[in-house]
Input
Amino acid sequence: MLNIKFETIDEYLSYFPKETQFILNGLRKIIRNAAPKAEEKISYNIPAFFQDGVLVYFAANKNHIGFYPTPSGVKAFEKEITKYNSSKGAIQFPIDKPLPAKLITQIVRFRLQENLNKSKKRK
Output
């Protein structure tokens, strides 16, 4: 990973070429629209959204945008993400294709509900 310590998502985005910044800002907007009360942070030196715990992380890579909705977010949408490379906690969206906004929205809302349910159980 990068040898730079980022403090804000804007700082992280500014590190990348304009084309990548455009894609990352689009992803940020999709997440923000799906979880308008979520707090933006840098965690593990990449952008993250938190509400009652971590919702999702994302990061730029050479050939893809990494979207990290935690293992439960990947598992819940395993049928919908079959056309993307994925692993236990990550989905890779090709950098040269449009982001699947509807899918990302569904995953973020799933994670938001999951966190709210966990938060209620703790109280």
